[in-house]
Amino acid sequence: MTNRSEAKTRITKTETNDTRDLYYRSPASEKKINLATSIIVSFITLAIGFAVGLNWTSIVGGFSPYLGGKKYVSSDIDFSSLNTVYERLIGNFDGTVSKETVIEEAKRGLVNAAGDKYTYYMTASEAEEFEKDLNGDVGAGIGVEIGERDGYVKVLRTTPDNPARRAGVLAGDIIYKANDEDISGLSVDAVAKKLRGAEGTTIKLTVMRDDKEVEFELTREIINNVSVYMEYKGKTAIITITRFDLDTGRLAREKAKEAISHGAEKFIIDLRGNGGGYVSAAKEVASLWIDGDLVVEQKSSSGLYSEKTYADRGGAILSNYKTIVLINGSTASASEIVAGALKDYGKATLVGEKTYGKGSVQALETFSTGEMLRVTVAKWYTPKGRNINGEGIKPDKEVERTFEQINKDIDPQLEAALAE
Q1: In three state form, how does the secondary structure of 9-47 look?
Q2: DSSP summary character for residue 361
Q3: Cβ–Cβ < 8 Å for 252, 284
């Protein structure tokens, strides 16, 4: 339902060149026809084929919705001016220009014209990194969660027993340079890519802290990045969900069953800093409390896209347990789907700060070349019909947690949840 602070919902359609026969006729069933009939039939077939060929795009576009596909519209844009610009570039530029890069950047610019930050083009290598990131396979890094705050890419938190925390990187630090390269103007995704690298390699990280530059020499390590983990505070089970990947639903259910068997009487679900993931995973987690009812509705303004997602039946093992959900400004997308559904059904009390507010749905169009198009296709709505895009979900009990408190391991939000 995506960067780490964005919703990353996945709907994949694969473009292939595969063709299949619609009908099979055995040689024994063929009948002989005379030469004149063959000529007439061939002429008619040729004429029909010619007409269909000339109008194929409009024909497919017209029938596609009835066949379960999308309505693709033939281009009415004259791209000849692009060739003119390219010719002038090649004719005047003092250097070499990669044709592959020209095509890639042209595609990127075309998609960026949509003016939607959640809609963008990815090369094959970028698509591969995106898939790894979505599933927590980030390889080697320094162990920081980053996001955009106040116009800067900041450290939101450092993960336990990883290079950044051991070196003294703090929540609230502004990412400024990587190996002396100014990366302060890059996007969250681009910054994350700069921070990653091969295991054992070093990176010189420069951050801005209290208007002063602070430098760190860090060695990248394989990051322990599970999507679900649990701890206990007396009879309260605290389940932290860091993202919604393909294993999250299973892991969350296993942790819930384990907590019940250990005599837990209350559950705290920590979704702070969770940037989202798969809608299917959000549904599986919500199914721990919701039995068969609507979890989320997705629909486009054009009416071409509409889908309702319902919770599984018979698996709401936490339905009767007191539940508190921790949220903050980095709780986004699939996390907001879960929080919104539990709030609408009165299954949980939300504690913390207003969520990010990503109420749109992205489809992943995957091409045979490995390239990927991430495009906004719809908005999603809570069971009560609320779209939170740009607004977020307000907690039932608002409790702030500052960067200073994070760095001192002080957690007033968790304390408030435990007191509920």
Answers
A1: CCCEEECCCCCCCCCCCCHHHCCCCCHHHHHHHHHHHHH
A2: E
A3: yes
Query: ∠ CA 258-134-65 to the nearest 5 degrees?
Result: 110
Return phi, psi of residue 244, to 5°: -115, 90
Question: Which is more confidently placed, 362 or 41?
Answer: 362
Looking at residue 370, its amino acid is G
Q: What would the two tokens of residue 391 be? A: 């607004």
pTM summary value: 0.73
Tens digit of pLDDT for each residue in 284-311?
A: 999 999 999 999 999 998 888 889 999 9
The model's confidence at residue 70, banded by pLDDT at 50, 70 and 90, is: low
Q: Provide the 10 A C-beta neighbour count for residue 392.
A: 20
pLDDT score for 136: 62
For residue 264, give every residue at least 6 positions away whose Cβ sits within 8 Å of its Cβ, in sequence order, or none: 232, 235, 236, 237, 321
Are residues 384 and 147 in contact, defined by beta-carbon separation less than 8 angstroms? no
CA distance 338 to 248: 13
At 350, the amino acid letter reads L
Q: What are the E-state strand segments in 94-227?
A: 120-122, 140-141, 144-149, 152-158, 174-178, 181-182, 202-209, 212-219, 221-222
The DSSP code for 209 is E
Residue 283 contacts residue 290 (beta carbons within 8 Å): no
- The b/e string for 8-22 (b: 16+ C-beta within 10 A; e otherwise) is bbbbeeeeeeeeeee
Q: Name the residues annotated as catalytic.
A: 333, 344, 358
What are the angstrom distances between the C-alpha of 251 and each of 12, 189, 242? 24, 27, 12
